[in-house]
Design goal:
About 40% of the residues lie in helices and about 15% in strands. By secondary structure, it is of the alpha/beta class. The protein is elongated. Helix 1 (about 25-35) links the parallel strand 1 (about 15-20) and strand 2 (about 40-45). It has two domains: about 15-210 and about 335-400, Rossmann fold; about 240-325, formyl-coa transferase, domain 3.
């Protein structure tokens, strides 16, 4: 696609971002900025490039995941272990607004690319550093992936049926939550820079990003010594909110935990006796009586097809939904109407559907203006922009430092 397409201008037009690192956490943060117009230069190693290029299902040798994670970016292939490549990064950093990295703490300093060095060259530079345990503390040097962060944060302890082995959420939620916290940090630092003129370092630990989403887990333990346990599909302490089996072994998710919603739900299932029960008028009472409430709802859903259940609950204004597969998502008219299924044309002429842009901005929505690059696709153009001659670039290529 044309990189100069201006029909989808984003609010971050003109923001210059350098992306170092690989796989999920750092690149997802840069992808989010690129979706909204930032100029992202992705640095990846010559040869294989970012390992994500070969993760999961491949199309013509490249992961289709890559087409999401690296859309709107430019690729420069540099061997960061080489001093000349490190010099190039320092040169790029002189004119950059943001640098994103997700290496193990200490790696950037070992390459002469730590904050002290780069911010001496460019005091306005904002650095996002994502790592397993953060840049400080006794665990800083331990290797940390998202799955470990999910365990350390307390999330994995809760994602199971009672008495059964904890399971993962199904996607790399620890990495993604860290990425989004990083983007929030970047936007706050950009806002502050308008006053001070100075950049700063944003230190995001994977486990802290997940822990930040753990709701009342810690204060409940602090105040009452309560250790929340796995509750399967139920929402502990909030009732009724659960998954209920319908005819044909389908499951419906029903959230009837608002006081007025609960009354409408009970009326819909023919249990006004429960809806009008003074002991169940608020959440604290319903938590005590959740077993009989769930039994009543489950008995009603078990006799009905899921579409009948959803029709009845929609009519009553009760939040409910079925569990989607990706096939359901791709066919859903609401996803289509909101632009969340975006067909693109790949460079070989074939078509691929990608998730649309989130969030939705009214005037500067951002968009997909450039397909994910091949390894080193933009190396020459980027190096020329910072003043290297064609002869210098060819000499670096001959030595395998750039590609």
């Amino acid at each position: 696609m044309d990189s100069k397409n201006t029909s989808k201008l984003g609010p971050l037009q003109g923001l210059k971002v350098i992306e170092l690192g690989q796989l999920i956490a750092g690149p997802f943060a840069a992808k989010t900025l690129a979706d909204f117009g930032a100029e992202v230069v992705k640095i990846e190693p010559p040869g294989a490039g970012d390992p994500l290029r070969k993760w999961r299902l491949l199309k013509d040798g490249t992961s289709v995941w890559w087409q999401i994670q690296s859309r709107n970016k430019r690729s420069v292939a540099l061997d960061l272990k080489e001093p000349e490549a490190q010099d190039i990064v320092r040169h790029l950093a002189r004119d950059a607004d943001v640098l994103i990295e997700n290496f193990r703490p200490g790696a950037m300093e070992a390459w002469g690319l730590g904050p002290d060095t780069l911010q001496a060259l460019n005091p306005r530079l904002i650095m996002l550093r994502i790592s397993g345990y953060g840049q400080t503390g006794p665990y800083r040097d331990k290797p940390g992936f998202g799955v470990v962060a999910e365990a350390m944060s307390g999330l994995r302890h809760l994602t199971a049926e009672p008495g059964r082995v904890p399971v993962r959420v199904g996607v790399s939620i620890g990495d993604t939550l860290a990425s989004l916290h990083g983007v929030i940090g970047i936007l706050m630092a950009l806002h502050e820079r308008q006053r001070s003129g100075l950049g700063q370092v944003i230190d995001v630990a994977l486990y802290e990003a997940v822990f930040n989403c753990m709701e009342s887990l810690l204060p409940e333990y602090s105040a009452f010594g309560a250790v929340r346990q796995a509750a399967g599909s139920a929402l502990p302490g909030i009732a009724p909110s659960n998954a209920y089996r319908c005819r044909g072994d389908a499951y419906v998710l029903i959230a009837g935990n608002g006081d007025s919603i609960f009354k409408r739900l009970m009326h819909s299932i023919g249990r006004d006796d429960l809806g009008q029960d003074p002991e169940l008028k608020d959440n604290s009472g319903r938590v005590q009586g959740v077993a009989k409430i769930d039994a009543a709802i489950g008995a009603w859903t078990a006799e009905r097809d899921i579409l009948d259940v959803l029709h009845s609950l929609d009519a009553a204004g009760v939040p409910a939904g079925r569990i989607y597969t990706v096939a359901d998502i791709a066919a859903d008219p609401h996803y289509q109407a909101r632009g969340m299924i975006e067909p693109i044309e790949l460079d070989d002429g074939s078509c691929l559907s990608l998730p649309g842009i989130v969030p939705k901005l009214s005037r500067t929505p951002g968009g997909h203006v450039r397909n994910a690059p091949a390894i080193g696709q933009d190396t020459e153009s980027v190096l020329q922009e910072i003043g290297l001659s064609a002869e210098q670039i060819q000499a670096l290529k001959a030595r395998g430092i750039v590609a």
